[in-house]
Every structure is written in structure tokens, then in C-alpha cells.
Amino acid sequence: MDIDRKKLDTIIRKNGGESSRILAIYQDIQKEYRHLPQEAVRYVCGKLDIPVVKGYEVATFYKSLSLKPKGKHSVCVCLGTACHLKGGPSILEAFERELKIKKDGTTEDGVFTLESVNCLGACALAPLVRVDGNDFGKSSPVTIKKIINEFKHGA
Amino acid sequence: MIQSLDDLENIKKERDSQYRKHKKTVRICFGPGCQASGSRKIYELLKAELKSESLQSKVRVVTTGCHGLCERGPLVILNDDEIFYQSIGKRKAKAEEEIRLIINTIKTGEIADKLLMDSHEKGKKYTSVKEIPFYSFQKKIILNIVGKIDPEYIDEYIAHDGYKALFKALTTMKSDEILGWVQKSGLRGRGGGGFATGAKWKSCKEAHGSPKYILANGDEGDPGAFMDRVLMEGNPHAILEGMIIGGYTIGSNQGYIYVRDEYPLAVKRLSTAIEQARKQGLLGTNIFNTGFDFDIAIVRGGGAFVCGESTALMSSLEGKSGEPRAKYIHTVERGLWDKPSNLNNVETWACIPVIINNGWEWFASIGNEKNKGTKVFSLVGKVKNTGLVEVPIGATLRQIIYDIGGGIQDDREFKAVQTGGPSGGCIPKEYLETPIDFDTLRELGSMMGSGGMIVMDDRNCMVDVARYFLKFLVEESCGKCVPCREGTRRMLEIVERICDGEGKEEDIAHLEELGRAVNIGSLCGLGQSAANPVLSTLKYFMDEYEAHIKDKKCPAGVCKPLIHYTILENCTGCTLCARECPSNCITGEKKKLHTINQDKCIKCGMCYEVCKFGAVKVV
Amino acid sequence: MIEFMIDGKKVRAQEGEFILPVALREGFDIPTLCHHETLGSDGRCRLCVVEVARGTRKRIVTSCLYQVAEGIEVSTNTPDVMLVRKSVIELLYARCPEAEVLQHLARKFGVEDVRYAKDHDKGKCILCNICIRTCAEIVGVSALGFSGKGMAKKVTTPFDEPSDACIACGACVVACPTGHIFMKDDKGVRTIWRKKFPLAQCPVCSRYHAPVEQLKYISKITNVPLETLMVCQDCK
After folding, report:
1. To 10 degrees, the CA torsion angle through B104, B105, B108, B113?
2. B344-366, pLDDT tens digit by residue?
3. CA torsion sign, A139 to A142 to A146 to A148?
4. Are C208 and C180 in contact, with CB atoms under 8 Å apart?
5. Measured between alpha carbons, how far is residue A22 from residues B120, B519, C120 in Å?
6. CATH number for the domain including C104?
7. What is the pLDDT of residue A123?
8. DSSP code of B383?
9. Are A57 and C136 in contact (CB < 8 Å)?
């Protein structure tokens, strides 16, 4: 894929151009491209003067970074302790069935990516589902159908 | 620019006179729980309704941080905790109707009973916050203004004595004196370790090397814990103020707050707070005209639990992957960039202004002999009143779970409370009278941790709980050292076999042996406490392990291979379960008893969820 | 000079030394895997653990990273030390059952009866980090690194693709304690890390010797012309 080098230069500059800021730089790039393209990793390492293999190590260590393209909407099922005790795994399974993908996968039409996270910090409202940054508390395998529809036809 | 105490006072006066212009105040909780319950929609509706009634200039609407009783959100509170309206928009009635009732209260003072919380006495309701046991049993010194102020305005913080402690510290106290106060206060780290904060500060102050760094750990990764999230979102300035005082005491001019990536709102609020503090001269150069410079930058995490560990956090700050390192040389001597670094949890930093304002004696008067002050806990799980609570250290588990928490949901039986996150353990009912402090919890095989308190009932399987935490640790292990990387996954394999009904007699001794090897052989705190959930459940719930291994049964009805769903006689034949069943394994005619084909059943639990008659049973 | 005890024997060391080299030169048998004589270690394998008593405190530490101190008492074979050692060996042996070094250690410490399902997809790699550090710090090209974390952690080249930085020098092969890394020379071509590298052919005797990439790198850092380096060591 084609990356916009000017855009990358701006992102690098905005983050102080330092190699210690590589995680923040990656996160900003991921916001632009909905993932971290290989070319971008190589370009950034060149600009920050660090070995590509070190930049690759950081890119693959952090769960929030994805080298694979993500879908339009990110469905995140919380599997924190409170959510686990209140049925979080059943909700994840329900999503897997409804969207016909496994966890960490993206639907064929590129609309949804399904992920899990180990606690979003809204534990009193377990079990929680976060879609594009919107939190839905006290969800159930029944309410998830509503959630899918809301985002499929909405944004 | 704020340069003096008078400047602070003037802002406070200015704010107070602004407040007096409004006859009424309405606070809407925008804490994590209420946000997930839809408080934003309630806020929009309320604002619209006030506008249509031309009341917007007479009524002050404040969106606050977490008020505390998340279970009952969305919360709308009138006039300084006088009227507590709860579950707005969650009842059968339309949200718009409930908003109109609230407007009516504002206009006429007439209280809408149906929006109030039921009290313990039949037929009676709680009106004000202080009547509600959930609140009245708490002691808020860190969270005292979190449900009150709008955290996006520095003026609100200043109007509640914000930055007075900083003024006092910088202009009237020497760094040794402040250090002495922190030591004498008895403050211990609120992030999990419970290490004496004063001792840590002293070591860093005396360490050789420059520059020195002040670090705040906002990486709250313990699942079930959201205390730090609430603090960062609800009162970010308290953290900044504490850090600046810390910098002055230790001899540092640069601070970093490491916030986990899953908390974007916390990042936003802290950034806004820093910008505002800078504008007012409370961060930057020559603070309060004392010649002291200090600035703070925010760094986002990347979704790695291990980065909550001090050396991994520093490694991440340096632009590397989050691998910890051995701590034979402490980070207060060689930390970030190999320089002396003082890392404390954000809650610990928020305690500092409180100690400076009120005095170390006052802080030390709360708690017990070796454990001072209060602690914020996230009370979640099978408890009636889920939410965020602050109690004096030394409060008992019973007080928190029953007096504040209201007891177990559906009045079921209490089984265990899990504290300390993945580094902690499960405590059974025999110990409900235990006063909670750092040392008592350790003695019980758990730990205080960051403050997550997860309540479990008879329908939670303790072997499944052990499996859950092991799975978590296997996913989050950085993989650097052998005991943690290889040991946790092998422990998980054993526990999974047990949950699947394939456990063997020798598994118990094996888990104990391997668990000990992992705990004493691992490189960092994550691995060194990785076996705790398993070891503590083995200690207190051996009978459940034995049921799984010997009888191939899961008494709590959780482990799928050991249970099955069955439909009882009281089935009305409504066919809802059959329609919802994803594997089409339920058959039955309309209005007749339905049956589940056990061969096709995938045990997803949908039938159990949807049945309105309680006719599906887990066996 | 620092004086302390190891298993009841009084020993001496310089300030700043780690316990491990002191113990080894005093004749104590402490096994290691991730420790390299030049690069040191970063405490990954935990095999070299010992128990250190300091004042009232006793703890298990890795002797490769714990600095000597006056008056400490080091024990090299307490029950806890042996528990960690045997557990580590059993776990590594289950991970890399083909590794001869681990087979030998398992025999020596009596953990040949592995209680875990053996892996067959990890080769002989124990993630000790020696190859990575050798490539970065001794050779200086940084062609190797870790990717992923936890059980997904592995040693690889960027994006698992043939590396632009690798000079096929084979230093990683030599440094690896288990012999995991594959390298093959055949008909003038060296295959290593999924890439084929032409070997230089000596203009004098026609023998294939070092990879051309490696000679280019040496030429760059020493300023010796490539043509000179193309001549093999025997013909110089």
C-alpha cells in the first residue's frame, strides 16, 4: 500500500522526532491507516535512526498495535474479571456466531473487527462491550444483536 | 497567571460568586459506569428541556466524575447531594418523562418518589446521599470532590482548595520537612506493593545522578479495578499537584504520567489539566515565584498489562518493548534512562496534597498502627451496590461487602472475594471480619493490590476463577523469563484439564510445586505473584478442585464439559428458547414442554438467558 | 576487596562483580544457558539462581546479575534453588525436546520424565537473546530481534522476511547455546535466516570462503578494499 511520507513526517515531528516516542508515533499512524503498514514501520525506523528489527519488536509487542488492517468498526468485548464472572465469554461467543468470525478477525465486508480486552475499567457495569469507543454496559448475548445493527446501519 | 495565595483565593471567590448566580445545581455523573449506562443521552435531554423552559441561566448543570454508586446509574443529583435520583432512563417509562420530573423538582421542589432509591425499610425511600448506607459508611478524602466538580475546569479544583498545598509546600516548607511529613504520615504505595512512600522518596532524594524523574503509574491493568481511571478522569489536578510537590521534595524538574491506552478519556482529561495548569503558571518555570521549575508529560501505554510493573513501564517510556529487568539495583537509584526515578501510583500522588493541607498527624490518625489513611476500592461482581468506595484502611471485608455493598445480589450466598487482581487471591467467608490492610491481606495469601475487590457467589466456580487468571497472565506475560513464560502456560494446561473433567490426582501437588517455582523463580512482580490465584484457591477451596478431579463435577455449574442445561416442568412452551438457540437443539410444540438435545447442545447458555419463567436449569 | 561466603566457603571478589563468575572460578558448579562470557546476561533463563542471605533477608536471585556485597551468604543448592533449577530445565526440555544441551541437563538433574506435552514447533530456541545481542553488539548490524510476547515470542528478522541488514557472517550460529540456528553452505551459496547469500570465490585458489555481504561490511568498517578481502586467508 502507498503511504504518505509527508503525513508520516508530520506525525514524527509532532511527537518530538525522538526514538523514545516510537509507540506514540505508531499509535498516531494507526489512527490514520487503521493499522500499522509495514512500509510505515520501515520509514519511521529510518527517520528515527533505529534498526528496523527494534522497531518491529515494538510494533509486535503491544496489543493496541495491529500490523493487519482492521475493520471500520472495532467491537471490543471486555474480559476483565468482573465481566468474566458476569458472562463476558458468552458475549464474545455470541459475537463470533453473529459476525461469523473468530476473535481478532475482521468480517469479510471489512465492517467489523472483533477483539477482546482485559478490562476497560467500567467494571460495575459488567459485562461490557466497547464499539468505536462507546461503552455498552450490562450487555447480554441478546442485546448484542441490537448493537451490531446500530453500527451496521448507522455510521 | 497564579503567583500567590491571593491569586488562588481570588479565583475561588470568583467561582463562588458565579455559583451563587444559579439558584439550583444539577450534577450528572459521567463516571465510567454511568457513561456505559447512557448518562450522555440523559445530559443532552436535560439540557434541551432546561433550554425549552428558559431555565438554562438559572440552573447550573455540572458533569462530574464518578459519584460512586455505579450500579444505580445514570445518576442525577440535585443541590449538593440533597436529592439522589438514580437509574434515570432505565425504567419502563421514557427517559423524557423522567427528565420532566427532574425539571419539576428543580422548579417546585417537589420530589419525584419513583426516581429515588428504595431504602431498607419497606415502603420508604432514601432522599439525600447521606441517608444511603453505601455512601454514609465511606470516608472520602481522595474522592471527596470527584462527584462534585467538573474535572475539565481548573477553577473548580481551585475553588475546592486546589493548589493550596503546592503553595504551602513551595513557599513555606523545605524539602526535608516535606519528606519528613510524608514519612510520618505512614503513607504506603496505593498501586499494589504497599511500600512506604516516605522511604522511597528518601532513597530517590539521596540517590546520585541527574536529572531525576517523577513518574506516575496510571497503567491500572488489574481487571476489575477502575479507581485510577476515576481519579484521572474525575480529579486530574490532584495528581499533578502531588507530582509537583514530589518533584520539589526529591529534586526533580520533570514528571511523566504513564496512562494505559484503554483509557482515552483519562488521557484527554489529564492533558487538559496540564494545559490549564501551564497557562496558570502552576506548571512550567518559576512556580509561585520560587524559582522552582517543573513540567509533566503524558505517555500512553500500548495495551500491555506488564507495563504496570515499574521497570517495564520505564522500558516502555524509553521507546522499547515492555520487558522488565531485575531490581537488584532499585529504580530510585537507576530507573528511567538509568537515572534516579521515583515511581508512584496516581492514587498515591493524590494523597500528597491532602497530607500537606491537613497535616501528617491528621492522615496518620486514620487507619491503624502500620497502615494509614484511606483506600479506594472498586467493589464489583455479585454485590448489590457495585461502584467505587473509599474507606479508612482497617475497615473489615464485611463492612465493605455488606454495609456498603448491600450484600450479595439476589440474596445469594457469599462465596469469596478476590482482591489484588492477578497478583492476589480469593478470600473465603471465614475471613469476612478481617480488617483490610496491606499486611492482613498478605497473611491470607492475597494482597491489597491496586484496590480491585471482586465479590463472588455460589454460582462462581473457583477452579474457573483460577483458570481465568492464569489465562490472563499467559496472555500478558512478556515472555522474557522461563518460569513465567513457560510455567504459567503449563499451569493453565493443568487447570484447563481439571475444568474439562480430565484432572488427575497428582495435579494438585504438581500445581503447588510448579506454582512455588514460578513465584520464587520469576524475574519480575508479574511472575512472582502469578501463582497466587491458583495457590489461594487451592488453599481455601480444595473441595471444588477435588469435585472436579474425583467426581468430574462442577458444583457451581460453570465448567461446560461438566454441566448440562435442562428444561424443567414449569416450561410454558413459549418457544422463545428454541428460536434463540444458535445450534437449533431445542424441540417442542407450542404451549408444550420443550427439550434440549444434549448431543447438539453447545452450552452457550442462551436458553438460560432468555427464559422468562426460570424453566431452564444448569445441572 | 569484598569478602563473602558461598556454601560456607569464604571467597573474595572485586566490587561490582556478579556472584556467578566468582562462584565459577571458586569451583562451584552453577549451570547457565543465557549467560555469555562477553555479553553477560539479562536474567532470562533463571538457571543460575542461588539463595542469598543478607542481614535478616533471604531471597532467590540470579547469580549472573546480583552484585557481590560484604558479608552475604550465598547458597548454591538449597531446596528452593534446586526447585527452580529443575523446574526451569523440565520446562525448557518440554519446549525444545530436540536440544542436546537440554537433554544433557535433564539427565544431570533427573528431570527426564517430562510431565508436560512436548512442543515440536519451537526448534531448539530457548529465547536466551544471545544471538540478538551478538548481532547487535558484537557484529553491529542488528539483523535479529524478538517479535511478539509471552508464548508468541520468537527470534526473527523484521516481518519474518529475508533481512536487508544480515551479512550472513554466522556469528549467531556460533553463539547460540543450543545450536538452533540453521546455516548451510552449498555450491557457493550460504543459506541463513531464509535468505541465500553468494559466497566469495577466492581469485587465487577458487575456493569459496566468506559471504560477499560480510566482506562488503568488513570493507566498509575497515576501509580495506573489497578486492583485497576477496582473497581467502590461505592465499593471502
Report:
1. 100
2. 999 999 999 999 999 999 999 99
3. positive
4. no
5. 55, 33, 35
6. 3.10.20.740
7. 82
8. B
9. no
Domains of chain A: 5-61 (no CATH), 73-153 (3.40.30.10)
Chain A, 52 to 111: residues with Cβ < 8 Å from chain B are 54, 57-58, 61-65, 79-87, 90, 93-94, 97
What is the nearest CA distance from B502 to chain C, expressed in angstroms? 14
Residue of A60, A63, A67 for testing the chain C interface, max C β-carbons within 10 Å: A60
Report pLDDT digits (tens) over C190-200.
999 999 999 99
Instruction: State whether CATH 1.25.40.10 applies to domain B462-550.
Output: no
Instruction: Judge whether B258 and B456 are in contact, CB under 8 Å.
Output: no
* Residue A37 in grid coordinates: 503498514
Strand B213-218 versus strand B341-345 pairing type: parallel
Secondary structure, 3-state, A96-113: HHHHCCCCCCECCCCCEE
* B285 in Cβ contact with B165 (< 8 Å): no
By DSSP bridging, strand A129-131 and strand A73-78 are: antiparallel
Report residue A2 as a C-alpha cell. Answer: 502507498
Contacts for B253 with CB less than 8 Å, ≥ 6 apart: B211, B247, B292, B293, B294, B295
Q: Is the residue at C184 inside a domain?
A: yes
Structural domain that includes position C206: 130-235
Q: How many distinct structural domains can be found in chain C? A: 2
What mean pLDDT is predicted for residues C192-220? 96
**Tell me, which fold does domain B374-457 have in CATH?**
Ubiquitin-like (UB roll) (3.10.20)
What is the CATH code for B5-136?
3.40.30.10
ipTM reported for the complex, 2 dp: 0.96
Total Cβ atoms within 10 A of residue B573: 15
Give residue limits of the domains in chain B.
5-136, 191-351, 374-457, 462-550, 564-618
Give mean pLDDT, residues B59-85.
Answer: 95
Please tell me if the domain spanning B5-136 has the same topology as the one spanning B462-550.
Answer: no
Task: Select from B219, B226, B389, B579 the residue whose CB has the most chain A CBs within 10 Å, as the one to mutate to test that interface.
Answer: B226
Region for residue C7 given its phi and psi (left: phi exceeds 0; alpha: psi -120 to 50; beta: otherwise): left
Pairing type for strands B565-567 and B616-618 reads antiparallel
Q: Are strands B452-457 and B374-381 parallel, antiparallel or unpaired?
A: parallel
Domain B191-351 belongs in CATH node 2.40.50.140: no
Instruction: State which residue of chain C sits closest to A37, comparing Cα positions.
Output: C159
